[in-house]
UniProtKB/TrEMBL annotation:
Name of the protein described by the UniProt record: Dehydrogenase
SMART domains reported for this sequence: Ald_Xan_dh_C (SM01008)
Presence of the UniProt keyword Oxidoreductase in the record: yes
Keyword line: Molybdenum, Oxidoreductase
Length: 800
């Protein structure tokens, strides 16, 4: 039999590689999208949460009598009332490495952060529910608040969880290869850099939301919500309610962003579902922005102490890192508190050839809102650490910052690093050289040098990095997760008109899956993109799926879709060969909605003709072919996964009078393999860079000593606007991936990974004459001013 679909050949299809009009746009841009808050059900009630006002304390009493007396309040529940199972995220690691902790759906004996849900109020409208929640009286016995690495690890510190001695959730030393100490002893240059990143909120445009309703007819709980991982929500919800999974159906309508914050299971959604089941009425909860900022999942707060040895030629000979990630009050499900430190440990050598490596990584718990994966997941932080090391070593050795990178980049592929990770072919050196040439050709180096003579502070910064994308089961299993994500499943079926419906376990929340996955199917089958309909976000339609995170949608989900389409093509060819009375080896898909006979191209069978036989005249089918046009496939990236790569180049100007930073130029050169839809990829890059700039210069949640969060609104949590984000140019290199069915490597997180380090390096270059060196993000104007004042007092400032 001939192959049922054309194999990937780089750019041979009609649809892949084209910026076709996005199929989601007409619906979303004309206000016809359907989000959770657009849904109203008959008899629907509304929920509001009573939240902790202290960061750490024992609950000594809860009085809901005033709440229940409010007209319109239907019910109010505490943890004891609902009696739900806890959310527990586990790693298969010994107790000395990992301390499992339980996250109750509603706090029981103890609260562990300001905003933790303590009780649930259900009323006839959301305003009454909020009024009722405000009247609840909760008494606490305050305990000492843990709000920093220093307080968490201090001897005798209060314990956030009794099960986590020393407030450490994870403590691993994944690598201690031979030769580290010897390399440092023989080094021509040793640098040590301590980098820190502030705590952030992912800030999806749509906050979390859920509507839960019990269907007596189907004996099923329908949960409509915005989540990146509907199947994991179904699993966790069923376990918490102690019911079979078949009695829970999770569906996801349109979703306004996620960025990782919605790829973990939240407790509020489970509480709302439990209330709906008890009341036998629909219950709705929409998170407000204050809740999202103070009690929603946060991210990013990390500290890296990085030592690196270099020889006299500027080549790195050893790396020694100590990593601490503040994971907040609870371990997220299913990834656990290990997601950040384990990723950083495994991947910190990044794009550089490191011959000896030692690392210790810890996840600590604190009295802050828990963390979830956020676009990039530790990579912005460990990349920033590595890139600051390169900058410091270049200065110490008198080398150009680009040259020291050039000497250390991986250039021979496949490359197996000291971290036991094998990197597939990429364009690490090519992207760096193109980024440098772009700025040089545009005259930015000359402008920088001339500006210094004029007393202006202009700097240029670079960042080289790789992004491991499409983590397969093997990669996640190395972390010793008990819940191991990886594979994806797709089903494709054709109807009597030749149109197809394809399912995917991935979850669109703004990445244009309806378009890009349809492009893949259209090329594989030779149909028009308008004949392809994507179905996602329904646990009844898809056997299981791992949702969308880590740039997996095209690499893994798209590969499963491509394989399913290929198998459907093979089935179409078998039926067509029978109808044309020829051998299956003598037919092929003709690329125009049908199957053609190879030795006589005048003879063909259209998909409509084939489908007519398959469904309406099945007696004409071959005896061994069932009457259906359906195919299913699964896909899992083998080994260590796939790697995209990029170089970011930034020009900034620092104002020593105000401390303000202005980005003058931003260039990104990236290689994400085959680009399915160039416009979508460019949008992913630019959006990711905007979020990375936000982390570099603006966004941060801080806490008072008593655990009170600083940012409860956008007045305090600074978010960049279009005015602060520069024009961004994106240049594409293209190294097709050998491990995916479509040659794509993924592009979802790269923009965010590279921006903080590139911007920080540019700021330090701009301040190079002042004696100031900054290694912490975000860099606020007051940060710059304080550093300049300190440098002036120490007499380290060099006249510009």
């Amino acid at each position: 039999m001939s192959d049922g679909a054309p194999r990937f050949d780089g750019r041979g299809g009609r649809w892949v590689g084209a910026s076709v009009p996005r199929r989601e746009d007409p619906r979303l841009l004309t206000g016809r999208g359907r989000f959770v808050d657009d849904i109203a059900l008959p008899g629907m009630l509304h929920a509001s949460f009573v939240r902790s006002t202290v960061a750490h304390g024992r609950i000594t009493g809860i009085d809901l009598s005033a709440t229940l007396a409010v007209e319109g309040v239907v019910a109010a529940y505490t943890a004891a009332d609902l009696d739900l199972g806890d959310i527990v995220a586990l790693l298969d690691r010994p107790p000395e490495e990992f301390a499992p902790t339980a996250m109750p759906i509603l706090a029981r004996e103890k609260v562990r952060f300001v905003g933790e849900p303590v009780a649930l109020v259900v009323a006839r409208d959301p305003y009454v529910a909020e009024d009722g929640a405000e009247l609840a009286v909760v008494d606490y016995e305050p305990l000492g608040a843990i709000v920093s690495e220093e307080t968490a690890l201090a001897e005798g510190a209060p314990l956030v969880h009794e099960e986590a001695p020393g407030n450490v959730l994870l403590d691993v030393s994944m690598f201690d290869t031979p030769g580290v100490d010897e390399a440092f002893a023989a080094a021509g240059c040793v640098v040590e850099v301590v980098t820190r990143s502030g705590r952030q909120n992912a800030l999806p445009l749509e906050t979390r939301g859920v509507i839960a309703s019990w269907d007596d007819h189907d004996d099923q709980l329908l949960v409509q919500m915005c989540t990146q991982v509907p199947h994991q929500v179904r699993t966790a919800l069923a376990r918490s309610l102690r019911v079979p999974e078949r009695t829970v159906r999770v569906t996801v309508p349109d979703m306004g962003g996620g960025f990782g914050q919605k790829c973990v299971v939240g407790r509020e959604e489970i509480a709302v579902a439990a209330a709906a089941r008890r009341l036998n009425r629909p219950v709705k909860w929409i998170e407000d922005r204050r809740e999202a900022l103070t009690a929603g999942f946060l991210a990013r707060e990390q500290r890296y102490r990085t030592r690196a040895a270099f020889d006299a030629d500027g080549r790195i000979t050893a790396l020694d890192a100590d990593i601490v990630c503040d994971m907040g009050a609870y371990s997220c499900y299913p990834f656990t508190a290990g997601i950040e430190p384990l990723m950083a440990s495994a991947e910190m050598p990044s794009v550089y050839q490191v011959p000896a490596y030692r690392v210790r990584a810890r996840a600590i718990t604190s009295n802050k809102a828990p963390t979830a994966p956020y676009r990039g997941v530790s990579r912005p932080q460990y990349v920033m650490a590595m890139e600051r090391v390169m900058e410091r070593a270049a200065r110490e050795l008198g080398l150009d910052p680009v040259e020291i990178r050039r000497r250390n980049l991986i250039t021979q592929f496949p490359y197996t690093g000291i971290n036991a990770v094998t990197y597939d072919p990429g364009t690490y050196l090519e992207s760096l050289e193109l980024a440098e040439a772009t700025l040089r050709d545009e005259g930015w180096f000359e402008l920088r040098d001339n500006a210094a003579a004029e007393g202006r502070h202009i700097g240029i910064g670079f960042c080289c990095f790789s992004e491991r994308t499409g983590y397969g089961s093997d990669a996640f299993a190395k972390r010793k997760m008990t819940v191991v994500p990886g594979f994806d499943i797709s089903e494709i079926r054709m109807d009597t008109t030749g149109s197809v419906v394809v399912t995917s376990g991935t979850m669109n929340h703004g990445q244009s899956h309806e378009t890009t996955l349809a492009q893949i199917v259209a090329d594989r089958l030779g149909v028009h993109i308008d004949q392809v309909k994507l179905r996602q976000g329904d646990t009844e339609r898809i056997a299981y799926g791992w949702g969308t995170f880590a740039s997996r949608s095209v690499t893994i989900g798209g590969s499963a879709v491509a394989l399913a389409a290929t198998r459907l093509g093979e089935l179409l060819c078998r039926i067509a060969a029978h109808l044309l009375e020829t051998s299956p080896d003598n037919v092929r898909l003709d690329g125009d909605g049908g199957v053609v006979q190879i030795d006589d191209p005048r003879r063909r069978a259209s998909f409509e003709e084939i489908a007519d036989v398959a469904y309406l005249r099945s007696h004409l089918l071959p005896k061994d072919v069932e009457p259906t046009l359906t195919a299913t496939a699964s896909f899992d990236v083998p080994g260590d996964g796939t790697f995209s790569n990029a170089t970011h180049a930034v020009v900034v100007e620092a104002d020593p009078g105000t401390g303000g930073i202005t980005i003058l130029r931003y260039a990104c050169v990236e290689d994400c393999g085959v680009v399915i839809h160039p416009q979508v990829v460019d949008g992913q890059c630019r959006g990711g860079i905007a979020q990375g700039i936000a982390g570099a210069l603006f966004e941060e949640v801080t806490y008072a000593d008593n655990g009170e969060p600083s940012a409860a609104s956008f007045i305090d949590y600074l978010v960049p606007t279009a005015t602060e984000i520069p024009d961004i140019t994106v240049s594409h290199l293209e190294t097709p991936c050998a491990f995916t069915e479509n040659g794509a490597k993924g592009a979802g997180e790269g923009g965010t990974i590279g921006a903080p380090a590139a911007v920080l390096n540019a700021i330090n270059d701009a301040l190079r004459h002042t004696g100031v060196e900054l290694d912490t993000t975000p860099v606020h104007p007051q940060t710059v001013l304080a550093a300049l004042d300190a440098a002036a007092e120490e007499g380290t400032s060099v006249p510009s």
